[in-house]
């Protein structure tokens, strides 16, 4: 059977022609290896959407390649631990002081200073749009000696955890030119990003002067392969060493020793447009909820490699089992042929099939259903603008701060930056504000679950299943990261034996 790793263990530990896609025998600035002399060839799922700007979701690529770093990182339990900041403390109700690590240099040779940290964080805080980790957060930063003071407009108990988001990576001054942020040669991590070929590939070389010790691999050669069949074929043919997000349909074609199922805090959800169209009617949203049979999706589309969702938060968060669930269910109405369009994207191979199955289920319930399927880069803008009546999305629920409150706010607050459901509900907003302001611990978890319940009560989102992302590693890969938060992939210890 394929390896299935528990979350705690994990945290510790377009067809394309494949020939010529991956660098063969490529060498970077470091020709001598610390442990092994072979570069690591990685097939990534999604191409960069914003030229690898850390202020976008591309930041997670920079993090997974160990090239851009943040002030803190998260441990297996989601607690903040030192990274570019050696320590921190809360100085006032609104302010936190971070002491910057000594002896760190950016890839261009300039030193990491408190002023450099302040510049990067200020660029994120003043960006338009802001990184979603800063949704609802008025953040200002001031450098003082070897410390930075991070202040928020309202008391925020999660400032340290927020600082772990890859979207708040600290880069050298050269990266910032007007509104553009270019990470090439500007990070502090174990690998130097030396070249980016648009949306096709990227090259990284070992940072021989990395503050955390030189990496074991001499470099990383990344190719972006949106086509899922091509990604899996790259592993089978030996063209890739590590393959991100192997689709369920391809898993059975690979050697079981090459597969690791990673239980992810990722939920496959049907978002319903609450502002216009058929699903402005709460009773029709309830009718859609009743029509969706998630077990069919798990058994059929995911071949049993997923878990039926009981809520928005899945088994990667064990405490989510304490939820009350929906407490104010609306009575389902009669669709009577109501016309709806469901949108989704091809980048995750299962989603078009999920949408097709939902089309059948909703048609059986009395809806008239059309599908619109594109690549994510070509559909995101329309999804956020409320173009579709419904949208199928695979969504990471603790991606940014390690805390699901940020995800819930982003997706369901009236002013959330990723509010595909176009939801504007006072009860939801109130619950989200309470969750965001509650200190870490049991009380915060209870507040988060109450906010989840408030969202579920609106039927603005129908959680269907929780995914187990499948990662493929060639037999000669040593110590690649299997990270449920999708922040790590190639680390200082990863190499080819």
Relevant terms:
Dipeptide-binding Protein, domain 3, single chain, globular, Dipeptide-binding Protein, domain 1, 13 helices, 12-stranded mixed sheet, alpha+beta, D-Maltodextrin-Binding Protein, domain 2, 3 domains, 4-stranded antiparallel sheet
Question: Topology of this protein?
Answer:
Layout lengths: L2 E2 L2 H6 L27 E5 L14 H6 L7 E3 L5 E3 L2 E6 L4 E6 L13 H12 L13 E6 L2 E6 L6 H4 L13 E2 L2 E2 L9 E7 L3 E6 L12 E6 L3 H10 L4 E2 L4 H4 L7 E14 L9 H10 L2 H8 L4 E3 L30 E7 L4 H15 L3 E7 L5 H5 L5 E7 L7 H9 L13 H12 L4 H17 L2 E13 L3 E2 L16 E2 L1
Helix pairs in contact: 11-12, 11-13, 12-13
Low-confidence stretches: 6-20, 23-35
CATH class of the largest domain: Alpha Beta
Rg calc: 22 Å
Quaternary state, please? single chain
End-to-end separation = 24 Å
Total number of beta strands: 22
What composes the largest sheet? 12 strands, mixed
Total number of distinct structural domains: 3
Q: Please, how many helices? A: 13
Strand content: 15-25%
CATH topology of the largest domain: Dipeptide-binding Protein, domain 3
Summing up helix and strand content along with how strands pair, one would put the structural category as: alpha+beta
Helix content: 10-25%
CATH architecture of the largest domain: Roll
- Overall 3D shape: globular
Overall pLDDT: 91
CATH homology superfamily name of the largest domain: Dipeptide-binding Protein, Domain 3
Describe the structure.
This protein has 497 residues and is an alpha+beta fold. The protein folds into three domains: 1-65 and 189-255 and 475-497, D-Maltodextrin-Binding Protein, domain 2 (3-Layer(aba) Sandwich); 68-182, Alpha-Beta Complex (Dipeptide-binding Protein, domain 1); 263-468, Dipeptide-binding Protein, domain 3 (Roll). It has 13 helices and 22 strands. The chain has helices at 7-12, 59-64, 114-125, 159-162, 228-237, 248-251, 282-291, 294-301, 350-364, 380-384, 404-412, 426-437, 442-458, and strands at residues 3-4, 40-44, 72-74, 80-82, 85-90, 95-100, 139-144, 147-152, 176-177, 180-181, 191-197, 201-206, 219-224, 242-243, 259-272, 306-308, 339-345, 368-374, 390-396, 461-473, 477-478, 495-496. The strands form five sheets. Strands 1, 2, 11, 12, 13, 14, 15, 16, 17, 18, 19 and 20 form a twelve-stranded mixed sheet that branches. Strand 7 and strand 8 form a beta hairpin. Helix 11 packs antiparallel against helix 12 (426-437), helix 11 packs parallel to helix 13 (442-458) and helix 12 packs antiparallel against helix 13. It is globular.
């Amino acid at each position: 059977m394929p390896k299935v790793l528990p979350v705690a263990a994990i945290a510790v530990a377009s067809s394309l022609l494949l020939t010529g896609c991956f660098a063969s025998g490529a060498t970077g600035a470091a020709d001598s290896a610390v442990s092994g002399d072979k570069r690591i060839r990685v097939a990534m799922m999604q191409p960069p959407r914003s030229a690898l700007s850390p202020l976008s979701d591309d930041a997670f690529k920079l993090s997974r390649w160990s090239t851009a770093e943040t002030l803190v990182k998260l441990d297996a339990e989601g607690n903040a631990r030192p990274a570019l900041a050696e320590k921190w403390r809360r100085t006032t109700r609104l302010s936190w002081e971070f002491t910057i690590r000594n002896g760190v240099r950016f890839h261009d040779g300039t030193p990491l200073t408190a002023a450099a940290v302040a510049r990067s964080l200020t660029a994120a805080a003043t960006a338009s749009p802001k990184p979603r980790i800063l949704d609802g957060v008025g953040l200002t930063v001031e450098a003082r000696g070897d410390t930075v003071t991070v202040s928020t407009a309202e008391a925020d108990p999660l400032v340290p955890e927020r600082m772990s988001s890859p979207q708040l990576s600290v880069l050298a001054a050269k990266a910032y030119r007007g509104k553009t942020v270019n990470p090439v040669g500007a990070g502090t991590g174990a690998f130097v990003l030396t070249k980016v070929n648009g949306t096709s590939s990227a090259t990284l070389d070992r940072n021989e002067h990395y503050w955390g010790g030189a990496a074991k691999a001499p470099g990383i050669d990344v190719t972006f392969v949106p086509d899922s069949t091509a990604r899996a074929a790259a592993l089978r043919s030996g063209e890739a060493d590590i393959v991100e997000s192997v689709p369920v349909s391809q898993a059975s074609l690979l050697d079981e020793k090459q597969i690791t199922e990673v239980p992810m805090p990722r939920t496959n959800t049907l978002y319903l447009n609450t502002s216009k169209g058929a699903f402005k009617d709460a009773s029709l949203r309830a009718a859609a909820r009743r029509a969706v049979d998630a077990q069919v999706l798990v058994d059929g589309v995911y071949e049993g490699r997923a878990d039926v969702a009981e809520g928005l938060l899945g088994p990667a968060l064990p405490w989510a089992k304490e939820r009350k669930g929906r407490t104010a269910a609306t009575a389902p109405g009669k669709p009577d042929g109501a016309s709806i369009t469901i949108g989704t994207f091809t980048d995750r191979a299962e989603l078009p099939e999920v949408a097709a199955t939902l089309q059948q289920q909703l048609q059986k319930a009395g809806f008239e259903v059309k599908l619109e399927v594109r690549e994510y880069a070509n559909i995101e803008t329309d999804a956020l603008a409320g173009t579709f009546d419904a949208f199928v999305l695979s969504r990471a629920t603790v991606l940014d701060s390690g805390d699901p409150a940020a995800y819930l706010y982003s997706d369901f607050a009236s002013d959330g930056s990723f509010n595909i459901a176009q939801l504007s509900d006072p009860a939801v907003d109130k619950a989200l504000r309470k969750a965001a302001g509650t200190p870490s611990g049991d009380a915060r978890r209870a507040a988060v679950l109450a906010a989840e319940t408030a969202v579920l009560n609106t039927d603005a989102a129908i959680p269907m299943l929780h995914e187990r992302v499948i990662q493929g590693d060639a037999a000669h890969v040593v110590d690649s990261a299997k990270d449920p938060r999708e922040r790590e992939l190639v680390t200082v210890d990863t190499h080819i034996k």
